[in-house]
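Backbone geometry:
***
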Amino acid sequence: MSRESLKTEFLARAGWGEATRRPLASDASARAYERLTAPDCRSAMLMDAPRERGEDVRPFLALTLWLRSAGFSAPEILAEAADDGLLLIEDLGDDLYARVCAAEPAQEAPLYARAVDLLADLHRETPPLALPAAGETFEVAPYDAATLRREAELVTGWYLPGPVSADLAAEYAALVDAACAPVAGARDCLVLRDYHAENLLWLPGRPGSAAVGLLDYQDALRGHAAYDLVSLLEDARRDTSPALREAMLARYIARAAPADPEAFRAAYAALGAQRNLKIVGIFARLCRRDGKPGYLRLIPRVWAHLMRDLEHPALAGLGRFVAAHVPPPEPAQLARIEAARG
């Protein structure tokens, strides 16, 4: 059966067969979304995540149910066909944080404050070890040293201009391990991993943390509380000011009350460096492997975040390596990556 036929049958079974369908802009994944509008003006979202393209809706299902049970605004699941990679979910609207902040700059600080408060609330919840999903059990894996290292190695695998020698790769891996050692054993909270302004929706009619709608958390892991704060404040897609970043970092520390605030700031810098190295590699890979050169224009912003993170004294060794071996995203370097597009 064709993909379109699967979707048509699924929607008919769910009672949405008469709805009009409008595709939404795709992201960096293989998932696709459509907004459905029923004849009675109700709306919903169709998530199309083909298993043959490496997608699996079960983690999203499991984590959605857990988040909703804890009072967070993940979208309600209206119907599911997990084996076919199809979900019908609540439509949380179009008020992405990025859009609201662009249209109403005065709203930026209040919106970010609410998103920071959500993280503090989320981090008070004991993260799940395993969750049921469509008749199976989904394990919430740890964000361990091997995962942190593997992600950071994306920059050497896809961004550097030439092959990396075994010795250089080993040196880099050891530096990443050392930088991440203070955070690699953390299992304190659920890390959503893509917690940023284009995955958060403003829902002002809902109270407290429920005013922040959540998207794109299916890759969540158990890890350190600083990771999602970095994701929010060191956004790859929109500028955040030094004043906003410092105010929101201080707000999180005040609300979450980590035992050692300075150690938390060091963890924030370490995970910021790891995440930004990963993103530089991912954006280069999206161009070279997937033929999506538009992501290259985002790398300079990510690079600026990386440079700030590497100023932390605990990251001096990793900073020296980056300065010596990872070229900044100047036009010639980005042109080389685009020229390698396959």
Observations:
- The chain is about 45% helix and 15% strand.
- The longest strand covers residues 32-37.
- The longest helix spans residues 261-288.
- The chain has two domains: 3-90, 97-339.
